[in-house]
Model the fold of this input.
Amino acid sequence: MARTGFRRRMGGTRGVFSGFLASVVSRGVDDSTWEELEEALILADAGVGAATELVDRLKEWSRAEKVTDPQALLALLKAQLAEDLGGRDRGLETGGNPAVWLFVGVNGAGKTTTIGKLAAREVNSGRKVVLAAGDTFRAAAAEQLGLWADRSGAELVRGAEDADPSSVVFDAIQHASATGVPLVMADTAGRLHTRTNLMEELAKIHRVAGKGPGTVTEVLLVIDAVTGQNGLAQARRFTESAQLTGVVLTKLDGSAKGGIVMAVQNELDIPVKLVGLGEGVEDLMVFDPVEFAEALFS
Ligand SMILES: Nc1nc2c(ncn2[C@@H]2O[C@H](COP(=O)(O)OP(=O)(O)OP(=O)(O)O)[C@@H](O)[C@H]2O)c(=O)[nH]1
Ligand SMILES: [Mg+2]
Done:
């Protein structure tokens, strides 16, 4: 996706900062600049702690350097934001024979869609992929994953209706191993039929997946950016029981709460590895802090 495409799709969150941008550009840096910026960051769900800390840092610098030029302030703001969000490894580990990537998250977050988009990316780069239909909550879930398998050129392994999710994932890994496929992406349910606790079920899938020939190299939590701080609360629950390696933040295109990227990394200390910017197969990007900062403040 071109840079302009990213900027345009970030329109919801950009809108939150447009008042601050317009007033700092027209009036220069003054006392209300800080309040407006802090308010906008909080409205965008960056988290109060992160917002205050960033604004205090900028305020101190601009007072020490006697900066009143808005462009100088915006340049520093972008650089600081990108630096705060940067320095993280956002790669997805592919070593593992096969490598197994688990996708977890509440229902509707975008797990299945993200798997479909990523499968297409991997297949396009020449890697064979098996998709494991570990969401056995609804029959339609496996069908939805099957559509993505067809579209992306990946193979689907599904179980009987109401099959144990762990066994479906285990079978998929064995199948991948037996046929020389290096990567398995496993879908999971955001809710369950049984009274079993979701977190326990996910822990079991993780454990069972590790017993086969493969290695679980990624556990990606999928969060819907539209839910903002609420998504952060969900994420906390998942971090307590799943060994997460990264976050996929979906629906940034429809969200005014893109600041959640800051909250996730600051408060949970988990890298946002990928962002979803639409429903299509192309609408998934590796999260780029520089591009993100540019999109919000230019
Ligand atoms: N606009 C937009 N829509 C998205 C994005 N990612 C997913 N969606 C949509 O969100 C809806 C839910 O996505 P799913 O992938 O089915 O979510 P899920 O987590 O698998 O949901 P369950 O299977 O019910 O647990 C679908 O309509 C997707 O097309 C995104 O980045 N942007
Ligand atoms: Mg799903």
